[in-house]
Amino acid sequence: MGRPLSLVPSVRFDDPLNDPALAGFTTGGASAYEREVDEIVKAFYDGHQPDQLQFLIAEAPGATVCVCAIHERPLQGVDPGAMYVGVIGVAAAFRGCYLPTGESLGDFMLTRSLAELFARWTVMPTVWALIDIANTRSQALFSRHAFAHLRTDKYQLWVRPAGLAV
Question: Looking at residue 87, which CATH number applies to its domain?
């Protein structure tokens, strides 16, 4: 296990376009999927704006800790109104850290993002993600949050059924 943080990061839902907290954001880029996360965050920073974007930024004094983006993206053949977890990224300096409660930063971000979705919708929508086959930590994270692995292509498809509470 990594090191505990002395405080719970402050969080805000915001427009990522040119947000200074995202300038130069990096997970450390040690693997192909970490470099892909860095590229996705940069695309949001540069102006990629999918429908119903919900972008969460967690910060500690003077540092961006982690980010999460969820947006509308139909799940072909399952739910045309589904929401997609476009990215969850923990900044390099905070990889392996956890909250004073013992909760991982990934769990913290996914829980907060799902809770916000639940608050905005009358019923929790279907939520899904594509996870790199090599990213076992992310697979375990989504499994802990009631996502089920449905199939594997280049990426693994993970789906959380509509109607589940957070």
Answer: 3.40.630.30
Q: Is residue 149 in a domain? A: yes
Q: How far is CA 118 from the centre of its chain?
A: 15
Given CA atoms 158, 163, 164, 166 in this order, what sign does their dihedral have? positive
**Per-residue pLDDT at 1:** 54
Dihedral of CA atoms 112, 66, 7, 102 in degrees, nearest 10, equals 70
Q: Which domain holds residue 92?
A: 10-160
DSSP H helical ranges for the chain:
32-46, 105-120, 136-144
5 found inside a domain? no
Positions in the chain whose pLDDT score sits under 50:
none
Contacts 24+ apart (CB under 8 A), 131-137: 131/155, 131/156, 131/158, 132/32, 132/33, 132/36, 132/156, 134/31, 134/32, 134/33, 135/31, 135/33, 137/106
Q: pTM of this prediction?
A: 0.94
Q: What is the pLDDT of residue 124?
A: 94
